[in-house]
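Ticket closed. Logging final result for FAD dependent oxidoreductase.
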Amino acid sequence: MKKFDAIIVGAGIAGLSSALTAVNSGMRTALVEKNHYLGGIAQDCFHTYICGLFQNDRSKPFQIANPGICSDIFKFLRECYGDKSLVKIGKVETLAFIQKDLWGYFSKHLKKNNFTFFKKSKCIKVMSENKKIQSITIAIEHGTQKKNINLYADIFIDATGNGYFSDKTLENNSQLGGYCILLDGCLNKDLSLIIPYTARKIIKEYELNEYLKFITITYNFLTKKYILKFSVKNHEDVETCQFIYEKLNKNIKELSQLKFIKASENIHLRSYSNIQANTLINHKTHDRDIAVKSYWPTEKWDINKGTQYQYCKKDKPFCIPVSALKDDKIHNLFLAGKNIRVSEQIHASARVMGVCMATGEQAVINALKYLKTNNMKALRL
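Final structure:
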């Protein structure tokens, strides 16, 4: 048995932001992650840019949308790369980064006596009583062996991305997911048009699923690497993606010159059924009821049309209320990242990295308020 003040499940960007906020608040913190690495989807899909970090306002270029941990990370990465990290793509502003630098930032700042990281650890049981989680049981992998440990805490944060602690699950697969391949090399030719064009011909020739034609390639100018991204519907599509990649290599000489480094270990779905229509608030809502603001457009990965965007109006961001970061049944369960309880429209805007960092931080801030309101003695503040 191990006792903590806060247990965060999921070490993606939202969970890491929750963990760092909790540690900096003086909480004995545990972070539980089923994989062997930090970073979740952003790590496994080789993300190149932090989206949702800025207000996308031409009169105030690269203005942070949500102060706090977002400002800290922005300052750190800008010091690493200078102004070249500030990248505008179409109508939106992004921050370019190198994976090892971002995850290294979290690793460095989490190395404190009050932090414990359980990697390759899967949450297999939740014990609740009187509408409060008392403990969770995790199965830790050690080679071929597994060991079960009970962890106790006063608050729990679900940053799994699939609503593990709630009744909701990733049943709604209405949007396409992502699967990526990382490539290395130097090219003088832009492949952004020829790859999807050639992919369409391959899909037609071999009578493959039409939605697989939505393929993109992006270049990380900081690492000099390419990311080939497939839009997929389920895990069975991975083998087909690899087949399409092989055919693309045979048809596009420049692509074949790039060295395969690795592919995503999993596919990552975007749909999530923890949708709460009643959490959609208007822009006149009092600031104290708003936890996070998202200026990022809604992204819907339509199976028939590909990515569809809807931009928010100037000075009218998508607002995420405080109530969206709290489970509606379990008193001491807080939500971050893709797990927040928002409308489908807001969810389609809020799942990007910059907004997930902010919801991860705010989940802990609201958990602290819960502890103080309930006169809980766990915190040494």
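Residues 353-373 form the longest helix (21 residues). No further action required.
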